[in-house]
Design goal:
Blueprint lengths: L3 E9 L3 H8 L2 H7 L5 E8 L6 E8 L13 E12 L3 E8 L9 E11 L2 E11 L5 H19 L2
Antiparallel strand pairs: 1-7, 2-3, 3-4, 4-5, 5-6, 6-7
C-alpha cells in the first residue's frame, strides 16, 4: 500500500482570522464542511489540541453513491493535532468503515495564507486510505472550500 496525498486550494475573499474561526466552530463547520449532495450532523465537538469531533455525513440521494460507513453515510472521527492561530489547523481524520481500504487515518492540514484579495486556503490530506478515490476526494475538498467561501465571504 502506498500513501497518497491529495491537495486543493482556493482564494477566499475574507481575512485569515474569520476563516480560522470557521474552522474551529461547530456550527460553522456544520454549515460549510459537508460537500455538495450531503448533509451533516455533529455528534461531538471539542475545539482544543487533543480534542476533536465526530460528524455524520449523509447523502441526500444515496442512489449511485457508496457511503464509507453505511450505504448512505460517512462517519468521520477527527482529532485536533495542532493549532497555529490564524495560520494552520492540523487534524487526524478517520472514516468509520468495515472496509480496510477505507478505514485508515489521514492527516488533514488547513493552511491560511494572506494574499492581496483575501486568503489562500490550502487543504492537504496526507496518507489518504487507498479505498478513497483521489478524484472524488479532491472534488469533495473543493466543494467544502466553495462552501467555506460562501459562509465567510461578505
Amino acid at each position: 500500500m502506498t500513501a497518497r496525498t491529495d491537495e486543493v486550494s482556493m482564494l477566499i475573499r475574507a481575512p485569515k482570522a474569520i476563516i480560522y474561526r470557521a474552522l474551529l466552530d461547530a456550527d460553522a463547520r456544520l454549515a460549510w464542511l459537508p460537500p455538495d449532495g450531503m448533509t451533516g450532523r455533529i455528534e461531538r465537538f471539542d475545539p482544543r489540541v487533543g480534542g476533536g469531533y465526530r460528524m455524520v455525513l449523509t447523502y441526500r440521494d444515496p442512489t449511485g453513491n457508496a457511503g464509507k460507513s453505511a450505504p448512505d453515510s460517512d462517519v468521520v472521527e477527527a482529532r485536533f493535532v495542532e493549532f497555529v492561530p490564524d495560520e494552520r489547523v492540523v487534524e487526524s481524520i478517520a472514516f468509520e468503515s468495515e472496509d480496510a481500504a477505507i478505514a485508515g487515518t489521514m492527516t488533514m492540514t488547513w493552511i491560511l495564507m494572506a494574499v492581496d484579495d483575501g486568503t489562500e486556503v490550502r487543504v492537504t490530506a496526507a496518507q489518504v486510505p487507498e479505498g478513497i478515490s483521489a478524484e472524488d476526494h479532491r472534488a469533495g475538498m473543493r466543494s467544502s472550500l466553495r462552501n467555506l467561501a460562501a459562509f465567510v465571504e461578505p
